[in-house]
């Protein structure tokens, strides 16, 4: 019984360490200039500001926002209701990371983008990057916004992102990149 408990503790500890590296503290990629800065939907209060700062700092001329009509995306959806210059809004179908990856790939193809900077929460960077790489040949630099989560919320994100990242490899977002 002690051996089983020991193995279980080592497995859980290893999983937590892996989750910390993948979702809590992802390695930042260097960010240069790009054709567009894309802010993924959800957690708009933390993500939108990062995207706006990147555009203000000259990383790209165009800000692209994913809209959903859901409460967690209210700030982004509100901005999309304005006539702001150099702003593009899209509604992914389905309203998932996979849907966003497909929509971004289509926008990149239609507009001839060679590179984009994609902003999402730190816990979401790895999975979003995988989905985007499955859908587009466009160079993607991921930028993490920092969520304000407590330990229990982080644990929930670790579980959700572990399952979803595994699903991204088992069932790719796109059959082939375009």
Description:
The chain has helices spanning 2-24, 44-56, 74-80, 97-111, 125-135, 151-170, and strands spanning 36-39, 62-66, 87-90, 115-121, 139-145. It has a single domain (2-170), classed as Rossmann fold. It has 6 helices and 5 strands. Helix content is 50%, strand content 15%. The chain starts with a helix and ends in an 8-residue tail after the last helix. It is an alpha/beta fold.
Q: Which residues sit in consecutive blocks of at least 5 with pLDDT less than 50? A: none
Distance between the amino and carboxyl termini? 52 Å
- Can you tell me the CATH class? Alpha Beta
Mean pLDDT: 91
CATH architecture assignment: 3-Layer(aba) Sandwich
Looking at the structure, the CATH topology is Rossmann fold
Helix content: 40-55%
Number of domains: 1
What does the largest sheet look like? 5 strands, parallel
**Total strand count, please?**
5
Based on secondary structure, the structural category is: alpha/beta
By DSSP (H or I, 4+ residues per run), the number of helices equals 6
Alpha-carbon Rg, integer:
17 Å
The share of residues in extended strands comes to 15-25%
Task: Describe the global form.
Answer: globular
Order of helix and strand elements from N to C terminus:
HEHEHEHEHEH
The spatial strand order of the largest sheet comes to 3-2-1-4-5
